[in-house]
Amino acid sequence: MTNPKGRFGIHGGQYIPETLMNAVIELEQAYNHFKNDPTFNQELTELLNEYAGRPSRLYYAEKMTKELGGAKIYLKREDLNHTGAHKINNVLGQALLAKKMGKTRLIAETGAGQHGVATATAAALMGMECVVFMGEEDTIRQALNVYRMRLLGAEVIPVKTGTATLKDAVSAAMREWTSRIDDTHYCLGSVMGPHPFPTIVRDFQAVISKEIKEQILQKEGRLPDAVIACVGGGSNAIGSFYHFIEEKNVRLIGCEAAGRGIDTFETAATVNTGSLGIFHGMKSYFCQDEYGQIAPVYSISAGLDYPGVGPEHAHLHDIGRAEYVPITDDEAVRAFEYTAKSEGIIPAIESAHAVAYAMKLAPTMRNDQIIVVNLSGRGDKDCAAIARYRGEDIHE
Amino acid sequence: MSNIRSAFENGKAFIAFLTCGDPDLQTTAAAVRAAVKNGADLIELGIPFSDPTAEGPTIQGANLRALNGGVTTDKVFDLVRELRRDVTVPLVFMTYANVVFSYGADRFLSTCREVGIDGLILPDLPFEEKDEFQPVCRMYGVDLISLIAPTSENRIAMIAKEAEGFLYLVSSLGVTGARNEIKTDLASIVEVIRRNTATPCAIGFGISTPEQAKKMAALSDGVIVGSAIVKLLEIHGKNAPGPIGEYVKSMKDAIR
């Protein structure tokens, strides 16, 4: 769906400093070459299968299905991947690509820390240097992941500017990339930023929907009625949607972080509350004020706490192919707790946003209908924060 | 011919950058007048943006202080109206694409013409995305100023051929801010620029001392200084116009 200039409808593009233009052009050329290279693809498949543990399971959540009473619910278990989230799919692809390009150093931004951990992991595996930028606020919310990254040999730089969250980490990583391009690849973690990142990251995450399709056909002999995923920048969602975009009978539903509610300022629901803008290299929807100043967004989930959304999601919204619904902190926390008690699975608080919508939708559907929820990550990292949300201090 | 060319008619040009509203708009106005009085040939007025991704810590701080002080695009336009009562040197805006986009390109650029802005610099608008604003800039006679970086290489000719106003040659990799040493082979970049355009070329990023300015001006048509001036505002606040005037004089004297 990408045109040569990296547009998805009116969205996307390359709004970046001149200093980076040759770097993204070089990346695009390298990607176009290697994506059709049998050796590259074989190496990547081997890494995904043998190292990351793919394919991930498509699990029938029978108990949840019975309790909610309605559509059959399947959980795509991206939480079972090595490093505990879908982020590893993209990172192994980009790290391998960077290595083929002769780069020796990976830099990355991270929100919840999952992408940072995945990047630090790939860097350790491939013998590359790694620097991760993380909002200072998030280094506190996700202290465990900071330790994991350091354990893996990465340097973690707390970003103190702005709101000290994900958007500031992206800005800091972009600034770092403009100062050191020759040996450094910016391993962007979501389907955002300048072209070709939204396309590269989508292609590496599309393995999720490819597997869902094969697995559901095998288990049910038919496609699902709805696929649900959480959306921050939108990488696990686009990965879950991609091979269903042309299957018009499959509803595609992205769950945005509404924070304390879309009628408050403490929200990160970009499609629901934002407007068209240009930021972080792309044209898309952003939470911003009337003068284009980027809003200080809020969500309990550090991974969804971002004021923009990937350009392909903005386009899928424009053409009505995907729906984007807001889920509040409270709904997500209840889904987090419910999934733990009902199925014995602790989902990432990000993924709990998707479960929360499935909990609303399933009872409205018939029991011969099927919902697939992408469980994008595991929730161990969130336990301390959720305990705090419930008024308990558990000292990690 | 664009009004911006007049900035390059008094020998090498000294271009001063300030972030509007740091610490307040009255100080900005006084600082602009002090710079012009002491030899600044062109003023770059920064419209603050919440997330200035091309800026180092000094100018990031200025953006934040200005926004916290309640500066908006409309208030910056009012500042320019007030400055134009007596300031005649070319004035250009330096901001980010979203500030122009969200205001509405047509509304933004028609107001630029109305208040007397001669050019626009958008560090996050590379050659490939120029069409976003170029046609509207043309319509209102505002020069869209292009940047060339140390990494531009095969892109220099393409950018230079379509350059308007002046070319902003970025001296070093990375973001804005003072540097001890500029290592890029700027002479060879300028040579390619000269072969492709008669548009003047000024060097910016990292220049803070008269010695650096002299060296950079010898290679090009002028120098752009931002962070060093913003630093004076950070240190002296409302009392910065005096030190800024003295500083601009020392820099302009060095490149004359």
Task: Provide a brief overview of the structure.
The complex is a heterodimer of chains A (396) and B (256). With 396 residues, chain A is an alpha/beta fold.
Structure, described:
The complex is a heterodimer of chains A (396) and B (256). Chain A is built from 16 helices and 14 strands. Chain A has helices spanning 18-34, 38-51, 62-68, 87-100, 114-126, 136-141, 143-151, 166-179, 197-205, 207-220, 235-241, 270-273, 311-318, 329-343, 349-361, 383-389, and strands spanning 7-8, 11-15, 58-60, 72-77, 105-110, 129-135, 155-159, 184-186, 226-231, 251-259, 275-279, 281-286, 322-328, 370-375. In chain A, helix 10 crosses helix 11 (235-241). In chain A, 64% of the residues are buried. With 256 residues, chain B is α/β, with parallel strands linked by helices. Chain B has a single domain (3-255), classed as Aldolase class I (TIM Barrel, Alpha-Beta Barrel), CATH 3.20.20. Chain B is 44% helix and 14% strand. Chain B has eleven helices and nine strands. Chain B has helices at 25-37, 57-68, 73-83, 97-103, 105-115, 134-139, 156-161, 186-196, 210-219, 227-236, 241-255, and strands spanning 13-19, 42-46, 91-94, 119-121, 143-145, 147-148, 167-170, 201-204, 222-225. Chain B has a nine-stranded parallel beta sheet. In chain B, strand 4, helix 6 (134-139) and strand 5 (143-145) form a beta-alpha-beta unit. Chain B is globular, with a radius of gyration of 16 Å. The model of chain B has no long low-confidence stretch (mean pLDDT 96). The interface between A and B is large, with 37 and 44 residues.
Please identify, by name, the CATH architecture of chain B: Alpha-Beta Barrel
Radius of gyration of chain B: 16 Å
Order the strands across the largest sheet of chain B as they lie in space: 5-4-3-2-1-9-8-7-6
Shape of chain B: globular
Structural class of chain B: alpha/beta
The largest pleated sheet of chain A is described as: 6 strands, mixed
CATH topology of chain B: TIM Barrel
Write down the overall geometry of chain A: globular
